[in-house]
Amino acid sequence: MDLAFFAASLSIFRLQKTIGTHTLRKTFGYHAFQQSVDITIIQRLLNHSSPRITLAYIGITQDDLGRGCL
């Protein structure tokens, strides 16, 4: 996605928050996990050294895993 297009979209929808690439990256990982994409695939896409780091990065806790967060 072109950065100018993204900035224009934020303006059109009157979103005042600053949304950067880091937010998009974390959101992508979180939603991929919610759609049952294997955590090791997300780990590789985000260039993390372990699935545990990826889970922490996207905000998934042990409690979430125990509850069947998917």
TrEMBL record:
<dbReference type="GO" id="GO:0006310">
    <property type="term" value="P:DNA recombination"/>
</dbReference>
<keyword id="KW-0233">DNA recombination</keyword>
<protein>
    <submittedName>
        <fullName>Tyrosine-type recombinase/integrase</fullName>
    </submittedName>
</protein>
<dbReference type="Pfam" id="PF00589">
    <property type="entry name" value="Phage_integrase"/>
</dbReference>
<dbReference type="GO" id="GO:0003677">
    <property type="term" value="F:DNA binding"/>
</dbReference>
<dbReference type="InterPro" id="IPR002104">
    <property type="entry name" value="Integrase_catalytic"/>
</dbReference>
<feature type="domain" description="Tyr recombinase">
    <location>
        <begin position="17"/>
        <end position="58"/>
    </location>
</feature>
<dbReference type="GO" id="GO:0015074">
    <property type="term" value="P:DNA integration"/>
</dbReference>
<dbReference type="InterPro" id="IPR011010">
    <property type="entry name" value="DNA_brk_join_enz"/>
</dbReference>
<dbReference type="InterPro" id="IPR013762">
    <property type="entry name" value="Integrase-like_cat_sf"/>
</dbReference>
